[in-house]
Amino acid sequence: MVAGLIRTLATGLLAAAAMAKDVTYYWDIGYVTANPDGKMERQVIGVNGVWPVPEIHASLNDTLVLEIRNSLDTPTTLHSHGLYQNGTNYYDGPFMVTQCGIPPGANMTYRIPIQQTGTYWIHSHYSAQYVDGIRAPVILHDPNEPYKYDEEIVLTLEDWYHDQAAALLKQFLSWKNPGGAEPVPNGALIGGVGGDTQKKLAFEAGKTYRIRLINMSALSMFHFSIEGHTMRVIEVDGFDTEEQAVGNVILSAAQRTSILVTAHNETDSNFVFHADMDTDMFDSIPEGLNYNSTGIVQYSADAPLKRDDSVDWSPFNDIDLVPRKKAAALGFDVSFQLDVFFNQYTDALNHGTFNNITYVAPRVPVMMTALTTGADALNATAYGPQTNARVVQHMQDVQLIVNNYDAGTHPFHLHGHHFQMIERGPAPYDASYNPRPTAPPMQRDTVTIPSMEYVILRFRADNPGAWFFHCHIEWHIEGGLAMVILEAPDVMQKRLNVPQQILDHCALASIPTKGNAAGRSGFDLEGAPDGPFPYPIHWTRKARGAMAGCVLSALVGFATIFWYGWSSKKTYATTAASPARLAE
Questions:
Q1: Of the candidates 363, 368, 340, which has an alpha carbon nearest to the alpha carbon of residue 483?
Q2: Which residues of 264-275 are buried (b: 16+ CB within 10 A; e: fewer)?
Q3: Whose CB among 161, 222, 383, 423 lies 3.0–4.6 Å from 387's, allowing a Cys bridge?
């Protein structure tokens, strides 16, 4: 009997190995021009001379191989959003967390084992580069697909800017923008088109379609619905759900949702679908902005549009979805409270912060500090004061309590994991309360937290690496709303071997790859980023000196005015009393 089980297991392993393969894409990343909304041609970042960037497809147990050539005039990196990268943390992509960037003119090979299925995307993780177009869907197929459908449609939702990302970032991070107003997009793209061009989804009578919705925006949240049709959610962020009928789906930046839609049997009418931008995300609404974007579900090119205004706009609450894969709610061995604020800091810029610390990249990539500092890597001090680093042990259950005290909504993304969504509620979270859900909680990798609300997230530290946790509004991550979780640095040192190609890129950029955040030994952090800081709430020596100077200047000014007025009065009196004046 045991021998039979062993033979069955061996057969299964051999079958899986036979199915697994390298899936290779060759990308020459460079500049092209595009005009997707028909309003302004502009420079974008494409691949192989093409934009939008084509989709990537692979299957469970494959190895995704990305052969990259950087033909830009700046560095670049690629982050496969939502992929676990278990054992390959060095391919995760965020600049100065796991990589130094691919230099202009250089090559890079990413070899990513596919350990999951679902709907994902890939984008640059260097500065605000992906806003200029270097982003694309990544679809990971399950050979044993649990859902029944006839065809699938990948539908991207994006906000679109006419100005270059670098100029927009300079505008956002400026002393002239003390309130931190984010750049508002010029419009929306659905499936890569916008303006007066409507995206058409071809439906055939009676077929069931899986529509993979991917929000690849820098800022915008979208509300998606289809008039006259029923949508059933089956996946969020690569995590399968039990089918759930919904009237609409809300997607913040970086979130993904798969829906099943069954076409009507009649083909005498076409229908409108909506991908409306949520204007609450914008500080202002520019004149001419069409935020209610629509497309066409097309049964026949000659059929008329049938309007149906009975769309169910009731709130879509992802935490209430039922996961297909049932896993009991985790407890926690360690808990971190992260309070979200935006304030003007001592560099005169408006920064996003966790616990009043704004993220600034260290001199040494965070992952490399973890790999090269021995036992010191277990102490968060080694990563510098501005990385907001937290260190957890292997296989600990980790809890994140995120209180959003900002006036806006934020989508937060954790690299390397799906997390359990334990609870939502009005901020602040009561630390004396420990929720223990009895039902298996829903999981995803990007969670939306409205203003003045909290969320409790839990995950198991089973993936040694340096994992970024940040707001996925691109302007906010560049403004510092980020932190790093160092997961089992001692295990990282045993398991991870950084490819020489990555080390060579660091050398070309003169970026050190050993030591603490300052590139030094121990906890000597001289030279590591330190600040900016919140403006102090008390009177500092400089502030008292400045105030004294202002008061003194004011007194001198008043005295000068008084003296001038008194002198003028005396002169006027003398002149008025003179014989010549009296003779007149």
A1: 340
A2: beeeebbbbbbb
A3: 383
